[in-house]
């Protein structure tokens, strides 16, 4: 973690865009411009877009208005704008947590449906275009799709020419909203094929309902794609400037090593949220004793910090629900009929809360956000404008902020008065949890 007192990223359209932001990367400059981060972006994107999984039950909703079919293999993580209600794959949970939840027919993937509750959402775990590209581009927290380009970020330029001949892996394609207040979209260029005559094909990957897309465009099809819907092809030319402090590695997530490793999913016992996952202490934990290999189970043992919390007699398969009020890291495993122990499920119980000033904070003055956290490290506070241009301001917490249980919002950080969402995000090795409140910012 960096120890800088605070760092903020203002994502509002500037009246004076820097010369770098106005620049264009020429085709000549593009040749041979591949960098390590670009190669990593392609590799990381494919962690999420190439993963294969098969539902073990019906009832898992998808964003296309239908359901993922039991027994059908899918490629790529589900599309769902989970916001603060569900959890974002790669940022809030490990990929292996999602894969474990897939194997539990009583998990939140099958029992929860965010359709109609959260805009642009369906599954409890998911990703969208912006979180997918943010994950690939090694962000600590996702950027909105509209915030990838030079109107909002430094270190990114328009590619010249705006065609297949100028494209390179790691480039971003931005599609603006079709109407005011509508949704925008981002895609990632992951491969460019050439022969002696130039570029022949461009591969584009993105998150799109119901999972992810992987399209190899011919050069002419790519050109037609770019020229429609007022799309723009962007290139990040200064990786650090583009991140503006929001770079993977400063926090525990994304964890690309964990996400790229093949997990061993428990066949005896799984949690309603999968495995390797955090819970709020006011959330019930539901243990599904599955015994998929019919070995026979005698009891369920739950431990916290290596000490037994409870041993529960088990009579056949079924779901056992418990509520834990003590924060900490837990493990649960079954004692089998022969006395052996099953693979353990790991989870944590956490607490997170914060308070805002009783009176509306003034934009021109500093104000404090007080918080408490149990078994979580608070990493950031985000102030989000819920309306276009969706300004976002990030405050990265220091160790002193955590000791004080308080973070100070600098005077003038928020550009305009009005309603903002205040997100407080904490994490531990199992994932991230968020609390969200809303407040009006006075002038």
What is the element layout, followed by pairings?
Blueprint: H1 19-22, E1 24-25, H2 27-30, H3 36-49, E2 52-53, E3 60-61, E4 67-68, E5 74-75, E6 87-88, H4 95-102, H5 108-111, E7 125-126, H6 129-136, E8 156-159, E9 172-175, E10 185-195, E11 198-208, E12 211-218, H7 219-227, E13 232-236, H8 239-243, H9 256-260, E14 269-271, E15 277-280, E16 285-289, E17 297-304, E18 307-313, E19 318-322, E20 328-336, E21 345-355, E22 367-374, E23 377-384, E24 392-396, H10 399-404, E25 406-409, E26 418-428, E27 431-441
Parallel strand pairs: 1-8, 6-7, 15-21
Antiparallel strand pairs: 2-5, 3-4, 8-13, 9-10, 9-13, 10-11, 11-12, 14-16, 16-19, 17-18, 17-20, 20-21, 21-22, 22-25, 23-24, 23-26, 26-27
Short description:
The chain is α+β, with helices and mostly antiparallel strands and 443 residues long. It is 15% helix and 35% strand.
Instruction: Say how many strands there are.
Output: 27
Instruction: Point out poorly predicted stretches.
Output: 1-22, 26-33
Main pleated-sheet profile: 7 strands, mixed
Beta-strand content estimate = 35-45%
The shape, in one word, is globular
Question: Helix count, per DSSP?
Answer: 10
* Portion in helices: 10-25%
Q: Mean pLDDT, rounded to whole units? A: 91
Distance between the termini: 33 Å
Record the strand order, biggest sheet.
1-8-13-9-10-11-12
- The secondary structure category is alpha+beta
**How many structural units, i.e. domains?**
3
From the alpha carbons, calculate the radius of gyration and give it in angstroms: 23 Å
């Amino acid at each position: 973690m960096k120890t800088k007192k605070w760092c903020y990223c203002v994502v509002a359209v500037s009246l004076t865009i820097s010369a770098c932001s106005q620049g264009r990367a020429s085709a000549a400059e593009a040749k041979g411009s591949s960098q390590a981060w670009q190669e990593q972006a392609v590799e990381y994107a494919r962690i999420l877009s190439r993963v294969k999984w098969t539902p073990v039950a019906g009832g898992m909703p998808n964003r296309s208005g239908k359901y993922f079919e039991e027994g059908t293999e899918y490629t790529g993580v589900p599309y769902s704008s989970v916001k603060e209600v569900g959890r974002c794959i790669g940022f809030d949970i490990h990929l292996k947590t999602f894969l474990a939840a897939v194997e539990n027919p009583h998990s939140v993937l099958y029992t929860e449906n965010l359709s109609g509750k959260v805009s642009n959402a369906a599954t409890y775990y998911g990703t969208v275009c912006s979180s997918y590209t943010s994950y690939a581009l090694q962000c600590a927290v996702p950027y909105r799709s509209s915030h990838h380009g030079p109107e909002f970020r430094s270190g990114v330029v328009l590619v010249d020419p705006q065609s297949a001949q100028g494209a390179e892996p790691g480039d971003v394609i931005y599609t603006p909203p079709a109407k005011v207040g509508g949704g925008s979209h981002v895609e990632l260029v992951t491969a460019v094929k050439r022969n002696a005559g130039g570029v022949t094909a461009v591969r584009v990957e993105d998150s799109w309902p119901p999972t992810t897309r992987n399209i190899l465009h011919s050069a002419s099809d790519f050109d037609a794609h770019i020229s429609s819907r007022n799309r723009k092809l962007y290139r990040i030319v200064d990786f650090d400037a583009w991140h503006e402090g929001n770079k993977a590695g400063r926090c525990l997530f994304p964890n690309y090593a964990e996400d790229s490793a093949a997990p061993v999913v428990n066949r005896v016992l799984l949690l309603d949220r999968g495995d390797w996952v955090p819970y709020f202490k006011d959330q019930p934990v539901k243990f599904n004793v599955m015994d998929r290999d019919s070995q026979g189970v005698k009891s369920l043992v739950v431990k916290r910090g290596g000490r037994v919390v409870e041993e529960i007699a088990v009579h056949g398969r079924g779901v056992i629900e418990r509520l834990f009020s003590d924060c900490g890291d837990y493990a649960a495993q079954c004692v089998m009929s022969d006395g052996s122990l099953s693979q353990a499920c790991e989870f944590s119980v956490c607490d997170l809360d914060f308070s805002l000033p009783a009176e509306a904070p003034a934009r021109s003055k500093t104000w404090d956000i007080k918080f408490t956290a149990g078994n979580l490290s608070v990493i950031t506070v985000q102030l989000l404008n819920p309306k276009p241009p969706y300004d976002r301001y990030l405050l990265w917490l220091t160790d002193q902020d955590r000791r004080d249980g308080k973070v100070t919002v600098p005077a003038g950080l928020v550009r305009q008065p009005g309603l903002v969402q205040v997100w407080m995000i904490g994490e531990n090795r199992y994932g991230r949890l968020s609390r969200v409140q809303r407040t009006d910012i006075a002038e």
